[in-house]
Amino acid sequence: MIEVKNVCKSFDGVEVLKNVSALFHAGKTNLIIGQSGSGKTVLMKSIIGIHHVTSGQILYNNRDFTAMSGDEVRALRQEVGMLFQGSALFDSMTVEENVRFPLEMFSNLPKEAWDDRVNFCLNRVNLHNANKLFPSEISGGMQKRVAIARAIVLQPTYLFCDEPNSGLDPKTAIVIDQLIQEITYEYNITTIINTHDMNSVMEIGDHVLFINKGEKSWEGNKDSIFESDNEYLNDLVFASDLFKKIKKNNLLNKRT
Amino acid sequence: MNLITHVGRYSQLMTGVFKKPDKWNITLRQIVKEINKLGVDSLGITIIISVFIGSVITLQTVLNTANPLLPTYVTGLVTRDTLLLEFSSTILCLILAGKVGSNIASEIGTMRITEQIDALKIMGVNAPNYLIFPKIIAFCLIVPVLVIFSMFTGIVGGYIITYTGVISPNDYILGIQYAFIPYYIVYSIIKSVIFAFIITSVSAYYGYFSYGGALDVGKSSTNAVVNSSIIILLFNVLLTDLFLM
Ligand SMILES: Nc1ncnc2c1ncn2[C@@H]1O[C@H](COP(=O)(O)OP(=O)(O)O)[C@@H](O)[C@H]1O
Ligand SMILES: [Mg+2]
Questions:
Q1: Chain B within 8 Å of A104 (Cβ-Cβ)?
Q2: CB pairs under 8 A between A and B
Q3: Contact A80, A158 (CB under 8 A)
Q4: B5 lies in some domain
Q5: pTM to 2 decimals?
Q6: In a domain, B237, yes or no
Q7: Does the Cβ of A41 fall within 6 Å of ligand 1?
Q8: Is B100's pLDDT higher than 80?
Q9: Which atom of ligand 1 lies at the shortest distance from residue A35's CA?
Q10: Cβ within 8 Å, pair B23-A84
């Protein structure tokens, strides 16, 4: 469980996050949604400490992250996995070297067990026969899988995904979303996902936080989103004709 | 951004670089890899340039010292000392700043904008140490080898050109042995190690603080080469003053 309390963040005097508070639950896919530029990435990077918050508190299972020493932060990092928007695979390393890297750096497992763990994770994300390829030689969807495998190789308690399906076709996007959700349930991970993809919201929105211009503007889940009368949220979620129709049908069904 | 901010951020980065590595065996593996990439791969260009410059210095000296009053060994002596004192350290390092500096800045800059550096950070890896430390160590270790190669092949280049008949090869051989001061070689190597540190650390700095897209990586790379060259020239004056005056 991660708790964010009154977090503010500004860059050179420009306020990007304004007093955001939220609770992200273990064993659930927690979504942060909002328009491009609304501050999703900054919020996520503040939670993991790539950005230092200007004020506010971040609690990892009641441990105050903002008050931790450098060593404590580094220890905590080993409980954290992250999936970056552009996958961020190390392009000088092969697929299996990428997944093995966190093990080499931090694992207490004996060296002989590394390969097993690497192969287990690559199998878990359904990636076969790609071990020796370089990131530039595989498709975007496969890169995402490798990145997921790398993020879970040290069995994280917390998993962060920044726009996990940006740049993927709709079908692959859903597969990646479902994979993240399965892994979250399987290992009871506290997963936080940034997205502006409404398919993802409908698919895996266990808990949804809506950020508008750096402020928390709505909180709920994929079902309660239909009943929301938040103007900005409806603007974003039901922007397309398809989703407008879905919303209408959903409300009609409820009434009858 | 002003000079003081640059110096501050550079020093901060270097404090991170010179922390104890998380895993020595990984660092050693990286150092070997970098020696290959930065050092061994620069051997070809070092030799080519040195041979040509060595022969051209010989030709120029012959042309410009055509005076019966001067002893015949002058050409060899001038070629040798030019190579030993300045060319094989300073000029070579300026050339390598172009090759190695842009390579380092663009590699690290690309890692920055594609969030690979953030990925390292999230894992709890000390990214400056993991990425930059092996490059600095590797290049400082290999640069004396490049310098020695450059001195040797430069002198050979001068020797080869004597066979075109400009001066007698024997006079040249006499010249390169005449009044030889071994300390010049030591001096050159010390200088080159300092230049190697400047090239790698300054280029890594510009790469590490890239922000934006591919275009910005290009800019970082240019900044890396231009600024490390200027700093090398500045230090060259200081070091010459310190070691030879
Ligand atoms: N490192 C930074 N320095 C200055 N401004 C930044 C930085 N990172 C993000 N911003 C600004 O913060 C705002 C929110 O960005 P971001 O969180 O990336 O949006 P998104 O919701 O699309 O992920 C944007 O206006 C962006 O320009
Ligand atoms: Mg973003």
A1: yes
A2: 50
A3: yes
A4: no
A5: 0.88
A6: yes
A7: yes
A8: yes
A9: 21
A10: no
